[in-house]
Known about the structure:
Layout (H helix, E strand, L loop, with lengths): L9 H21 L7 H13 L8 H36 L11 H15 L9 H21 L7 H25 L3 H11 L10 H18 L1 H8 L2 H6 L4 H23 L5 H13 L3 H25 L8 H19 L9
Helix pairs in contact: 1-3, 1-13, 2-3, 3-8, 3-11, 3-12, 3-13, 4-5, 4-6, 4-7, 4-11, 5-6, 5-11, 8-11, 12-13, 12-14
Amino acid sequence: MSDPVRRIPTVPLAVGLATALLVSLVCGVAFGASGIELPRVLRLLGAGLTGGRLEASDSAAYAIVWELRLPRTVLAAVVGGGLAATGVAVQALVRNALADPFVLGISSGAAVGANAVLLLGAFASLGVWAVSVSAFGSALLAMALVYLAARTAYGLTPLRLVLTGTALSYGFSALTTLMVFSSDNAEAARDAMMWLLGSLGGATWGKVPIAACAVLAGIAYLACAAGRLDALAMGDETSASLGVDPERLRRELFVVTAAVTGTVVAVSGAIGFVGLLMPHLARMLVGAGHRRVLAVAPLAGALLLVWVDIASRTLLAPAELPVGVFTAVLGVPAFLLMMRRRGQAFGGAR
Length: 350
């Protein structure tokens, strides 16, 4: 796929982003309401990784670093990478530059399950896993409803998928709003609104492997399907002439994006703009080829969300702001700027 605009070489850019991500992970552990000096953080991280001995005075700081900050920072990177990767997939699935992982109504469906736990006490027997399990289950149910409603005898078309997902998303959002306003528990309603706007405050080591496995599996599938995604982006007739079955590929993409989105939303709430913004940024930097985009977008998404999470818990410490507020504040002007710079790609004249 030729690209007349000069692009940044993919491998050096990916290596630079990976290096910046590693540095950012350390910063995410070092920054917080409880001031812990960077040298001490590095020493505690080293002790935890190598099994080194610690002094008794380090026990409180060690707990903060390893049980609170590190799993939260790692989960932020996993969620950011997952949202960016599924953003690439959804935009290829529906052939729409304005699509993101939430256009299929999956996040709104997950919100119904999460709020059923927070506001109504459903699945309380699951303990700390109640919100995640309920959100993931309702996300899968939403996926099934969207698929069944959008599918016709002629297959799964991009337009019907977007319209069905949007319509059901409004329905799920209305149900969630009804539950929030019907609740007489002010604290539970606040927790529900925090979840709806995105929060990584409930991060634990138990949640990291599940989310990481889902995200890595999704990225691996997309990387293997990169050539077919390039063909799909050129239209159904062209992709069919190149030996790609567009209907089958859409079904696969729908399942993969729904599973990854449902998993990350279950552990982080609804965080917008990452899946919309990062694919466009990657295309601006390395071109439109999906193999190159998938090498850059997840790393950029992980890097962004790590720093957004740092800002959300430090700017007004000890209070914490929803992560989704920061992504919207950053995403809206950035997206408008990119839209002006790339008018033709968004349906305008260059």
